[in-house]
């Protein structure tokens, strides 16, 4: 915020754009700015120093967000790591995740969790490459009532 007063609106736009490409069961819908601000930027578990942003000049092109896990004080949860389509394949997502791993090591955290859609092969590959291990699987069920 000190470096860029437009940080939050630019970050919100990046997050919404990147999230539209995350393969989830439902069609992703944009989160209104005020709701995103409350959930993400004002979340008491957010670690602002670990909120990584990749930039091309003044343009925000990639991000990775991290929160503390309240019940496990030495653990972190890494949320969306997303990169704009036209910047993918250049190692930006890997660099963002490496910056988060570096932050965690330097600040005494010993565990990072993240979630991945089973159909998101790119992010699965990155997470495996960086040493993340698969944990319990969650299965989403749906029953059409029509």
Produce a short descriptive summary.
The protein is α+β, with helices and mostly antiparallel strands.
Describe the protein in words.
- The protein has 146 residues and is of the alpha+beta class.
- Helix content is 32%, strand content 22%.
- The chain is built from four helices and four strands, in the order H-H-E-E-E-H-E-H.
- A four-stranded mixed β-sheet has the order 1-2-3-4, sandwiched between helices.
- Helix 3 links the parallel strand 3 (72-83) and strand 4.
- Strand tally is 4
The helix tally amounts to: 4
Mean of pLDDT: 90
The low-confidence parts are: none
Radius of gyration: 16 Å
The separation of the N and C termini measures: 49 Å
* Order of strands, widest sheet: 1-2-3-4
- What proportion strand? 15-25%
Order of H and E elements: HHEEEHEH
Q: Please state the overall shape, judged from the principal axes of the Cα atoms.
A: globular
